[in-house]
């Protein structure tokens, strides 16, 4: 899997660049509306610097929506992603960007509803038993209540943008089984709990996408072997001076998201 993943990541931007050249003649006359929805994984947290105009939403020019639009011609982007966004935030602050003219929608959301960040922080700073309990509750939510909530949100996206292809890009596993994570390195037991929780969120998201009839992209497979704490991480480890970026994709990680969005947009 790691060899396959290396090939995928090495050719990701070459692929989307080729798409820009090959696809331009067919789409140049009629740009299609692309709306990017979601949380920090969609806004580009981890791919510093951020657009100052985006404020606390921390949108990066290296986020997967921005990279995709730069590399693949024929799309105009409405980027309403925002760091910290929950499903309620997407409904209340982002869905208004959709319309009957929207041709493509991407979304990554649900992690904040599952308390991904606070659970990870607890696993880094508290005991193994605390980490086990926190991930257990988050995982239960992700495999049960979250499925219906996400499916409902995806359904609302389809109603507001009936012509659009909806691509749900999931979350990766966060940490490698071994290796230094930077300022704080969790134990092997904690890592297993954290990755089990990531699996629960990914599987819950997959189930919701299937229920709603939208496309799900499993980022665990593409970033396998490149998690935080690995020899060549595409997920940030723990940097006490940039805590917001902990366990978020690096610029290379966002490029991998870009590749999968390009591959699943039609």
UniProtKB/TrEMBL annotation:
Gene3D superfamilies: SGNH hydrolase. The keyword Hydrolase applies. GO terms for biological process: triglyceride catabolic process. SUPFAM superfamilies: SGNH hydrolase (SSF52266). Keywords: Hydrolase. It comes from the Bacteria. InterPro entries: SEST-like, SGNH_hydro, SGNH_hydro_sf. GO terms for molecular function: triacylglycerol lipase activity. This is SGNH/GDSL hydrolase family protein. It comes from Micromonospora endophytica.
């Amino acid at each position: 899997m790691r060899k396959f993943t290396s090939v995928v990541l090495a050719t990701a931007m070459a692929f989307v660049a080729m798409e820009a050249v090959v696809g331009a003649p067919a789409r140049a006359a009629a740009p299609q509306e692309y709306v990017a929805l979601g949380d920090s994984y969609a806004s580009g947290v981890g791919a510093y610097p951020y657009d100052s105009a985006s404020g606390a939403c921390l949108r990066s020019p290296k986020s997967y929506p921005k990279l995709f639009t730069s590399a693949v011609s024929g799309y105009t982007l409405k980027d309403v992603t925002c760091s910290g966004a929950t499903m309620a935030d997407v409904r209340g602050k982002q869905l208004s960007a959709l319309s009957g003219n929207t041709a493509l929608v991407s979304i990554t959301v649900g992690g904040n509803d599952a308390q991904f960040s606070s659970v990870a922080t607890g696993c880094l700073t508290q005991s193994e038993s605390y980490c086990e309990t926190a991930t257990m509750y988050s995982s239960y939510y992700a495999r049960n209540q979250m499925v219906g909530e996400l499916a409902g949100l995806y359904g609302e996206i389809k109603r507001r943008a009936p012509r659009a292809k909806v691509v749900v890009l999931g979350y990766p596993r966060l940490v490698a089984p071994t290796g230094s994570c930077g300022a704080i390195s969790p134990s092997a037991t904690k890592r297993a709990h954290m990755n089990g929780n990531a699996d629960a969120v990914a599987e819950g998201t997959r189930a919701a996408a299937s229920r709603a009839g939208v496309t799900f992209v499993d980022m665990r497979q593409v970033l396998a072997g490149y998690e935080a704490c690995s020899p060549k991480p595409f997920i940030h480890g723990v940097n006490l001076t940039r805590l917001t970026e902990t366990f978020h994709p690096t610029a290379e990680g966002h490029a991998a998201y870009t590749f999968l969005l390009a591959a699943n947009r039609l």
